[in-house]
Amino acid sequence: MRIIQAQALNQGFLLLDADGQARYLANTAADSTAVNLPEGMKASSAATNNDQAMIVDKGGRLWAWKPGEAPKRTNNGNQQFVQATAAGNRIIAISRQGDIYKWSLDEQGQPGKPARLDTSTDPTLESASLDSQPLKLSKTSSIWQAEIPARKPGPAAITIAGRQDGQPFTRSLNYTVDQPLTRDDQQGTTHTVTFNADGGSPEPADQNISDPYGRVKRPTPNPAREGYQFDGWFTGEVAYDFSKPVSKDLTLTAKWTESGNNKWSISPDKGSQLGRESTTITPPDTSRGIRFNQLSGSKDFDLGFSLGVGSDGNAYAWGWNKYGQLGDGTTTDRHTPVLVKKPDRTTYPDVPENFTYVQVSAGWLAFASRGQRRIRLHLGLEQPMASSATTVTALSTVPVRVRDPANPTDTNKGLKAVQVSGGDLSFTSRGQPMGTPTRGDTTAPVSSATGRPPAGRRRSW
């Protein structure tokens, strides 16, 4: 039996083997027991939260399971999912199209109807001017209007400024005065992973991945294609999850969106020299949203937060943020996804400039994440920090490095892991064999099998 995923529960672990069989290993048990889905369905992924697990079968159906109970269907529609998490009776899941859905179970545990979470962000227009003369702006819904003053006939330039996708921008829009009105409307086995840039360049070289635990390295830099935005690497319509082991030959294809959604328009673009007219300034269409390949929900029901890894390699977070657990550098609650900051290269100069996130796992007041190749990060309340002589705790609102268990006081060495799972005020990683944990608190990683750093292993970036 080869285990490809392990998730922590309050009283044990939920394991998933390579054949799609889920198993439960209780803390007091010597061996695991099978968790059988109805109709003999096999599991493709699982996520846990306290005493409950969310299991996605290979048909895309979602099941809730607790130790000692039978799995229950959690959604009442035909939507197919690839991953899900839950906090109490609230469920968040990623569909096979990369969209996020949320819903709740009622008091009798009956499934609700999933509702799609809109992740798009409207651009903001802050100012407009006609030949350097400020224009008065008004807004209705997502549309801005500008009052055009009197001006001599001829071409003019309207300059607009604002913010889009969190970045400032300035655009120049053409406008003509006194012209006719117009409208512009296995071990030892190697699997080959091939990349199809679909018209972009450079096209990454093939990667040969060793079975059973080998993972694809996200290609850098991202390909570019004139007139398009790179959305990420996909298998079919599903954003690829770079945290998963490769079990067969794959072709990852680049997905693109036309860059037309960066275009602001003005209508009408001509007017009388006498002025007293209105023109409408329309922002670009940003409704395509974010494609997610991974999702994780926090352990707390009332003060929860959620995390996701986007197809662009960024981590996103939203929800309660009193202790900075969203990782955006603030303690402001967020109702829509915001970017999680990347590791500070001033503090960690060995972090690659093209760093991307691979996996995230939400705990209670903290989260654990695994970055590109050899980095793992953790932040929030009671964040492990260390000086040269002692280990201390402090709050962090941005990602910080988790220490190498073999060198817990060395700030220049980080923990290498292939999987992480966040707990209440702690996290687990699958980089060491699982065994019997020791009693007592610790602010640095230790092997669960021995209670001490593993001998003969040294981990660094």
Key terms for this structure?
elongated, mainly beta, 461 residues, 5-stranded mixed sheet, disordered C terminus
Describe the protein in words.
A 5-stranded mixed β-sheet has the order 14-13-17-18-25, with no helix packed on it. The chain has a 5-stranded mixed β-sheet with strand order 20-19-23-21-22, with no helix packed on it. The protein has a 4-stranded antiparallel β-sheet with strand order 1-2-3-4, with no helix packed on it. With 461 residues, the protein is mostly beta strands. Strand 5 (43-49) and strand 6 (52-57) form a beta hairpin. It has strands at residues 3-9, 12-17, 22-26, 33-35, 43-49, 52-57, 62-65, 72-73, 81-87, 90-95, 100-104, 115-116, 124-130, 133-134, 137-140, 143-148, 154-164, 167-177, 190-196, 207-210, 228-235, 238-239, 250-258, 265-267, 270-271, 277-282, 292-297, 305-310, 315-319, 334-339, 357-362, 366-371, 376-386, 391-401, 420-422, 427-429.
Question: What order do the helices and strands come in, and which of them pair?
Answer:
Layout lengths: L2 E7 L2 E6 L4 E5 L6 E3 L7 E7 L2 E6 L4 E4 L6 E2 L7 E7 L2 E6 L4 E5 L10 E2 L7 E7 L2 E2 L2 E4 L2 E6 L5 E11 L2 E11 L12 E7 L10 E4 L17 E8 L2 E2 L10 E9 L6 E3 L2 E2 L5 E6 L9 E6 L7 E6 L4 E5 L14 E6 L17 E6 L3 E6 L4 E11 L4 E11 L18 E3 L4 E3 L32
Parallel strand pairs: 18-25, 19-23
Antiparallel strand pairs: 1-2, 2-3, 3-4, 5-6, 6-7, 7-8, 9-10, 10-11, 11-12, 13-14, 13-17, 15-16, 16-26, 17-18, 19-20, 21-22, 21-23, 24-26, 27-28, 28-29, 29-30, 31-32, 32-33, 33-34, 35-36
